[in-house]
DNA sequence: ACCCAGGGTCATA
DNA sequence: TATGACCATGGG
């Protein structure tokens, strides 16, 4: 629902930050995956987990020929769990992965879901056990190519450090804030979030605050 | 030997 | 509504 006071973000400010990031890092070509289904799997596996661990898990699934909704859904819990072990939380995530694949199959597959409007699709994704706001939005933006702005811990840290948000806003408030300010733009949202992650991961992760940050307002800090 | 990572769910107050 | 516990591996 709408928060009492809608988050006020200026388009010019957001675009300024975007240009700084783009200039510093260049085009990121996200999401790192070979197919939309792989994007969705990655979105679940990367929950609170470092990406290199997810890559190992996905490689295991590929090697076992388990990178399709049908095969994941029909495999045993233990087999899936064992394959995705490197991504952490493997019991929970095996359950989530299989629940999601069952959902895909029950809906007639990815092709059918593509025909839903964005609002309906988002609602349906969120109804799957283990798919929360960020996971759903990763899927919507990077697998379904819908103009949904993804909010994650990095987004909160960077923009609160820049003084553009407080940081404690609800997920929905932030998402709507960015979407309203920028206007629907799949390519922009895609690149923007990719750049945010790139910056957060590699920029000033070792210093509390980076003086030569590519963002003029100052960098995020490493800790939580 | 810590700290933390591209979250989400569930139980309590 | 809002915290806290829990899930678990691997890199710094």
Could you characterize what this model shows?
With 224 residues, this protein is mostly helical. The protein has 2 domains: 1-30 and 149-224, Orthogonal Bundle (Endonuclease Iii, domain 2); 36-142, Endonuclease III, domain 1 (Orthogonal Bundle), CATH 1.10.340.30. Helix content is 58%, strand content 0%. It contains 12 helices and no strands. The chain has helices at residues 11-25, 36-45, 51-63, 69-74, 77-83, 90-106, 110-113, 118-126, 133-142, 153-161, 171-182, 186-202. Helix 1 (11-25) crosses helix 12, helix 2 (36-45) packs antiparallel against helix 9 and helix 5 (77-83) packs across helix 6. The longest helix is centred in the middle third of the chain and has 17 residues, at 90-106. The chain is globular. The two termini are 27 Å apart. The model is unreliable at 220-224 (pLDDT under 50). The chain binds a DNA duplex (13 and 12 nucleotides) through helix 2, helix 3, helix 6, helix 9 and helix 10.
CATH superfamily heading of the largest domain: Hypothetical protein, domain 2
* Average pLDDT, all residues: 92
**Domain tally:** 2
Structural class: mainly alpha
**Rg from C-alpha positions?**
18 Å
Low confidence ranges: 220-224
What is the string of SSEs from the N terminus onward?
HHHHHHHHHHHH
The helix tally amounts to 12
Residues in helix, %: 55-70%
Measured by DSSP, the beta-strand proportion falls in: under 5%
Estimate the global geometry from the Cα principal axes.
globular
CATH topology of the largest domain: Endonuclease III, domain 1
Q: Count the strands?
A: 0
CATH class identity of the largest domain: Mainly Alpha
Terminal-residue CA separation: 27 Å
Q: Describe the biggest sheet? A: none
Overall CATH architecture of the largest domain = Orthogonal Bundle
């Amino acid at each position: 629902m709408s928060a009492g006071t809608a988050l006020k973000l200026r388009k010019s400010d957001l675009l300024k930050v975007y240009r700084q990031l783009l200039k510093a890092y260049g085009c990121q070509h996200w999401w790192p995956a070979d197919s939309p289904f792989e994007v969705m799997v990655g979105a679940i596996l990367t929950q609170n987990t470092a990406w290199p661990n997810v890559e190992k898990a996905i490689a295991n699934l590929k090697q076992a020929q388990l990178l399709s909704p049908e095969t994941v859904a029909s495999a045993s819990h233990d087999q899936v769990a064992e394959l995705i072990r490197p991504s952490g939380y493997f019991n929970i995530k095996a359950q989530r992965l299989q629940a999601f694949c069952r959902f895909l199959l029950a809906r007639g597959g990815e092709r059918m879901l593509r025909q839903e409007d964005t609002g309906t699709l988002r609602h349906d994704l969120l109804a799957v056990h283990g798919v929360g706001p960020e996971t759903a939005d990763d899927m919507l933006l990077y697998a379904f190519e819908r103009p949904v702005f993804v909010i994650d811990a990095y987004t909160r840290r960077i923009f609160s450090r820049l003084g553009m948000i407080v940081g404690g806003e609800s997920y929905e408030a932030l998402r709507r804030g960015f979407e309203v300010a920028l206007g629907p733009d799949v390519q922009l949202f895609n690149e923007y979030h990719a750049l945010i992650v790139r910056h957060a991961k590699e920029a000033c992760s070792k210093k509390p605050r980076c003086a030569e940050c590519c963002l003029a307002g100052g960098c995020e800090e490493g800790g939580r």
